[in-house]
Design goal:
Blueprint: E1 2-15, H1 21-32, E2 41-54, E3 58-62, H2 69-76, E4 84-89, E5 93-96, H3 109-119, H4 124-138, H5 153-164, E6 171-175, H6 183-200, E7 203-207, H7 211-217, E8 220-225, E9 228-233, H8 235-256, E10 264-266, E11 270-278, E12 284-285, E13 287-289, E14 294-302, E15 310-317, E16 322-327, E17 340-348, E18 356-365, E19 371-384, E20 402-406, E21 409-413
Parallel strand pairs: 3-7, 3-8, 5-6, 6-7, 13-19
Antiparallel strand pairs: 1-2, 1-4, 8-9, 10-19, 11-12, 11-14, 14-17, 15-16, 15-18, 18-19, 20-21
Length: about 425
C-alpha cells in the first residue's frame, strides 16, 4: 500500500534581490502605463518529480547541495506547497526538519518541551508521560528549568531532537539531524533512529550527506540531481552511482586546479614537479586493479639542502579519509637531499583497496620534524573492479588475501583478476 504519492511535482522560486519601496512604486507606475517591468528569474528547485513510497519503507534521499532534497522534504511535510503537481501523504507526519527552529529563547527547557511537543501533535497527557524520557535522552536534567537562551547551540539541538523523536507517527521525515551534537550524542541519535525504524515499522524519509549511514539504514535510495530524480533503487547501487559521479566531478575540478593547488603547503625549500602513478611497465597510468601493485613516482626540486629528511607518501579517499601512508623515517641511513631535482618512488606490492577513486598525498619533513612540504589530492587514480564478484563487495573497503579451513581442510582465497583481463 502506498503511503506517499508524488505526482508530477515541481517547485519554482523566483531569483533576484528584494526591491526597495521606491522601486516597487516605480514598477507599479510602469504596470499602470503598460510598460515592461523587470522580472525576477524563475528557478526550479524540483522539476516534475514522480515516485511512490509504500508503508514501512525506509527511503534515503541523497544528492549534491542544491539538488532539491530539503525542498522535497518540506513539500512532504506540508511546510510549503508545490508550484505544480500534487502530493498525497496517508498518515500522521512527524517532520524533523531544521531541528531547534521552534524553540523559544525566553522559555525554560521544560516549557519548550511542552510547547514544541504540543505543536508536533502530542497530547498534554502524553507529554507528561514521556517528559522524563525526553529530558533523560537530551542529558539536560540539570538545565531543564533554565531559559534556553542560556543554552549552548549543542544543548538546544539535543533538546529539540529529543522532543521530535518522541512523536508517534506513521511517517518520519528527517533532514540532516543525525549529525547533531558531539560524537557521543551523534551515536546516541543514530541508535535512536534505528530504534524508531525497526521498533515502530514507520515509513521513514531521510536526507543526509552521510552516505554510509544511508546505506546502512535505508531499504531504498533516491538520487536527486538539479531537481530531478536521477536514480531510484537499492542503497548500495545508488550510493555507488553517487560516489562515481562525485569522483568524476572531483577529478574534473582537480585537473582545472593546477594539480590540487589549494591542498598544498611549501616552506619554499621544495618545489613539486610531478606526481605519477606507474603501471607494471613503468608507464604513467590513472588506474590499477584491486590488489595490484601501487607505484607512485614523485619528482621535485630542492632549493636548499635538507639533512636526512623524512618523506611520507600515502593515499586518501576523495573526502579526505586517510587510508595508508609510509615514511622513510624507518630507514636509518636515509640520505640527505642536496639542491637540485630528485625523484622518489613509493611501491606497495599488493594494494588491497576495492574498486573506487582514491588520491595520493605527499609530505617532506626535516630531521627535526619541521614541515617542509605537504600536499593532498596530488594525483587521483582509480582502482578497477575484479572479475570475481563477492556478495558483500559493496560493504567492504579492503580486499585481503585470506586462508580458510573448511572441516580441517585448508583453502586459500586468491586475489581475483581485474575485470578487464577476465576474458583474455
Amino acid at each position: 500500500m502506498s503511503i506517499i504519492e508524488v505526482n508530477h511535482v515541481s517547485k519554482e522560486y523566483r531569483l533576484g534581490t528584494l526591491t526597495s519601496l521606491k522601486d516597487s512604486a516605480k514598477n507599479m507606475v510602469r504596470r499602470l502605463r503598460k510598460q515592461p517591468v523587470q522580472k525576477r528569474i524563475p528557478f526550479k528547485a524540483l522539476d516534475d518529480i514522480n515516485f511512490t513510497i509504500t508503508e514501512g519503507e525506509v527511503v534515503g534521499i541523497i544528492g549534491n547541495n542544491g539538488a532539491g532534497k530539503s525542498t522535497l522534504l518540506k513539500l512532504l511535510a506540508h511546510v510549503t506547497t508545490p508550484t505544480t503537481g500534487n502530493i498525497a501523504v496517508h498518515g500522521k507526519v512527524a517532520p524533523l526538519i531544521e531541528v531547534g527552529a521552534g524553540l523559544v529563547p525566553d522559555l525554560t527547557g521544560r516549557e519548550n518541551v511542552y510547547l514544541n511537543a504540543t505543536i508536533l501533535g502530542i497530547s498534554r497527557a502524553d507529554i507528561a508521560r514521556k517528559f522524563d524520557d525526553i529530558v533523560s535522552f537530551s542529558e539536560l536534567e540539570d538545565f531543564i528549568d533554565t531559559p534556553i537562551k542560556r543554552y549552548s547551540s549543542g544543548m538546544k539541538i539535543r533538546l529539540a531532537f529529543s522532543i521530535a523523536t518522541s512523536v508517534d507517527a506513521e511517517v518520519l521525515i528527517i533532514d540532516e539531524v543525525l549529525a547533531v551534537g558531539d560524537l557521543a550524542f551523534q551515536r546516541k541519535c543514530f541508535d535512536r533512529m534505528e530504534e524508531l525504524i525497526k521498533g515502530r515499522g514507520s515509513t521513514v524519509l531521510i536526507v543526509s550527506h552521510n552516505i554510509r549511514q544511508i546505506e546502512r539504514m535505508c531499504s531504498r535510495v533516491l538520487l536527486l540531481d538539479h531537481g530531478e530524480v536521477a536514480a531510484d533503487g537499492l542503497p548500495l547501487d545508488i550510493a555507488d552511482l553517487f560516489y562515481r559521479r562525485s569522483n568524476e566531478k572531483i577529478n574534473a575540478n582537480h585537473k582545472k586546479s593546477l594539480q590540487g593547488k589549494v591542498h598544498k603547503y611549501s616552506s619554499g625549500e621544495i618545489e613539486l614537479l610531478s606526481v605519477e602513478l606507474l603501471n607494471e611497465q613503468g608507464q604513467p597510468t590513472d588506474s590499477l586493479p584491486s590488489g595490484g601493485t601501487l607505484r607512485v613516482r614523485v619528482k621535485f626540486n630542492v632549493n636548499q639542502t635538507l639533512q636526512r629528511p623524512e618523506i611520507v607518501v600515502g593515499t586518501h579517499t576523495t573526502d579526505f579519509f586517510y587510508l595508508s601512508a609510509s615514511s622513510t623515517a624507518l630507514i636509518e641511513d636515509r640520505p640527505d637531499l642536496e639542491v637540485g631535482t630528485h625523484e622518489v618512488e613509493y611501491i606497495v606490492p599488493s594494494f588491497p583497496l576495492v574498486a573506487g577513486t582514491y588520491c595520493v598525498r605527499f609530505a617532506i619533513f626535516d630531521q627535526h620534524q619541521r614541515k617542509v612540504f605537504t600536499g593532498e589530492t596530488l594525483k587521483i587514480f582509480t582502482i578497477l573492479p575484479t572479475s570475481m564478484e563477492i556478495r558483500d563487495a559493496p560493504m567492504r573497503r579492503l580486499y585481503l588475501p585470506t586462508q580458510w579451513r573448511l572441516d580441517g581442510v585448508p583453502h586459500s582465497s586468491p586475489m581475483p583478476a581485474p575485470a578487464e583481463a577476465a576474458g583474455s
